[in-house]
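Researcher: Going back to the complex we discussed earlier. I've cleaned up the inputs and rechecked each line, so this should be the final set. Can you rerun the prediction on the complete assembly and write out the structure?
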Amino acid sequence: MTLLNETHDPKLKSWISSANDPSCDFPIQNLPFGIFSTADDPQPRVGVAIGEVIVDLAALEAAGLVSPPGAEQPVFAAATLNPFIALGRAAWRDTRLQLSRLLREGTATLRDNSALRERALVKQAVAALHLPVEIPGYTDFYSSKEHATNVGAMFRDPKNALLPNWLEIPIGYNGRASSVVVSGTPVRRPNGQIKLPDQERPAFGPCRRLDIELETGFIVGQGNALGEPIACEDAEQHIFGMVLLNDWSARDIQQWEYVPLGPFNAKTFATTISPWIVTLDALEPFRVAQPEQSPQPLPYLRHAGQHGFDIHLEVRMRPAQAARASTISRTNFKYMYWTMAQQLAHHTVSGCNTRVGDLMGSGTISGPTPDSYGSLLEITWGGKHPLTLDSGESRTFIEDGDELTLVGWCQGDGYRVGFGECRGEILPALPGAR
Amino acid sequence: MTLLNETHDPKLKSWISSANDPSCDFPIQNLPFGIFSTADDPQPRVGVAIGEVIVDLAALEAAGLVSPPGAEQPVFAAATLNPFIALGRAAWRDTRLQLSRLLREGTATLRDNSALRERALVKQAVAALHLPVEIPGYTDFYSSKEHATNVGAMFRDPKNALLPNWLEIPIGYNGRASSVVVSGTPVRRPNGQIKLPDQERPAFGPCRRLDIELETGFIVGQGNALGEPIACEDAEQHIFGMVLLNDWSARDIQQWEYVPLGPFNAKTFATTISPWIVTLDALEPFRVAQPEQSPQPLPYLRHAGQHGFDIHLEVRMRPAQAARASTISRTNFKYMYWTMAQQLAHHTVSGCNTRVGDLMGSGTISGPTPDSYGSLLEITWGGKHPLTLDSGESRTFIEDGDELTLVGWCQGDGYRVGFGECRGEILPALPGAR
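Model: Rerun complete. Updated structure for the full complex:
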């Protein structure tokens, strides 16, 4: 582990005692940013999760206890993180340090100011969480070699599962930003065109092969101008942080529509992200080497050092009536072949510009074994091997009422830097064949 | 021609005499909306083009001469059209009628108020035109049967050029909104991965097969909520207007990258649109039947009546040193197989939401004959049949310094409703293989 600065010290404790539980996602080493509101104050504003509470940064900023360098006006009394993120990396770091010092054991400023503490600490249980950023553009990559190989084997040729361009290009495509929703938002099963093998023409109706894709996403913190690519070596400096991302996918709609321009209605009905953005700074101690890349990438995709991150990931599925969820996949971000830096360098190498708040999905994260696959398509191998849940029910794809939850965390020494949940329940399709 | 209301009367003349020239793109029957600024007043604001001038709507609104119904605060002193468009169809129609009455021959209010006229009429020649809308999402369709057939014949199988899904689905994909630029913005030739047939690995370098795609785009004026599709019969009510659109394409980058998720870097470096949005109301007299669709589309894609528009389109190419441009293609929007209404109904049928200002490209518009094809790829048949320009130079694809211009207009009786220009000059690629 790398101890870049005092915010990473594993021994740090907070005077907010719930943050010191070793199984808590939000210890003082994490300090992820999000947008929340409460029944008392329905105005969405910036908060930081710690233990079981949210620290209201708008309140701290108004009280003069937190002030991001470079801010000419308040940035935390905002309904999105974009104004704060736009201040740049030095401001993110400095604010993180200010918060770490304010919330650590022994610092009395906020702890002993009961009036302010009352206003500024909100129980997560009573808060509503909102989409943390306004997302000008959403791009989804396809950077897990295991996932690309599995899909290629199923849909094309098992002997040549990986397409020739895959080892050269961090393949990606433009997603639909408008339908990115925050964890907890119910997702309606899409209707669409489905072409069954024994039918001459497609039929219109509810998706029958509704799936998840376990992904992470990163949020662009500093964009680039049109025509000015971001070099691979510099790319991480442009990344604010990461979220969990569920790229809901209608496999039957996708299979019929995707040639030759890629997936469209199969993906555009919803993409769910977790509400807390874990900063790249908080993830720094969990940096690991990415898998070896062979052939060596073209020069514009090269970067020295380690660019993987050791993030444990799980998928949980809970049928409507089940008392508890079953874990159906356990994998890790460190398996990803292409790094976030390579994705961003490739995205911009043509001159394409990026903007503050842009969301870039990793692509489905599959590990080497079936219990580490990141989609039901792979876990049940196209529906051939149904999954048995703890409740005794079996599943090939998602049924109405099922709730799917992604979780993720980095394991530190006595603490974990967690992402919280990325959750969605499936509602029945709209009725009528229209 | 349909005379829906008095704004369509072919006999209408304006007291702005340049608007009465039969070859002018902007007669009083058009009244397209855009965003402009001037050296004297660099604040971008809403204007309407008529004849050789721009009517400054911010100035007219401030003077109380134009007031869109439903506006609770000024909407024309804005840097984008989004606040105006968000007022909805009734407001667009009413504003158009107010302007038509104010600018027509015989109305003295503005004509004889020299102080206001001085402020509110700006010569187009001295104005800078900006992107007319903030574009939350950009989608590009692929709705010309001739284009899809030509591309399929070149890249896949001439005998089965059209893929099986094409006649059932208005195929579309998500584009990159960040790099949509307004006419006149220079476009830098992209660098990217290019895989030559005789090489084992791709090389990185400037695109060698840079192309245009002649398209139109429509601007969503009224969006839909997530999970609430727009019915095909209602879809035109959601459209504010149309622009010309050049979907610049790097064919060599595209060919290597596009399998299996579609075009990405080959398209994301720039998309140019014309600055004036011609309202669907202004296009109403030019409504024609779309081509016959066989097989009959699925019910969710059906709409009674005529949904094509008779829009003449041309592509002009001017090499750096040439005195004048050569027209290299003449086609018409009426050839489009899938209608804008069908595109929007399909886009949202999965539940995907759309937003005010969303841009939807038609896809390359090719007619039935080689001189009506909408891309150099088709015109030169993959570079096999070079084109000879009026200057004597020959071209397969675009060279550095070439200027490409799309123009379009509807021909009325003694007037034309034009789109102005959609123009871009190609700059050399950034140096260095990085």
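Model: Worth noting: The radius of gyration of chain A is 22 Å.
Researcher: Good, that matches what I expected from the previous run.
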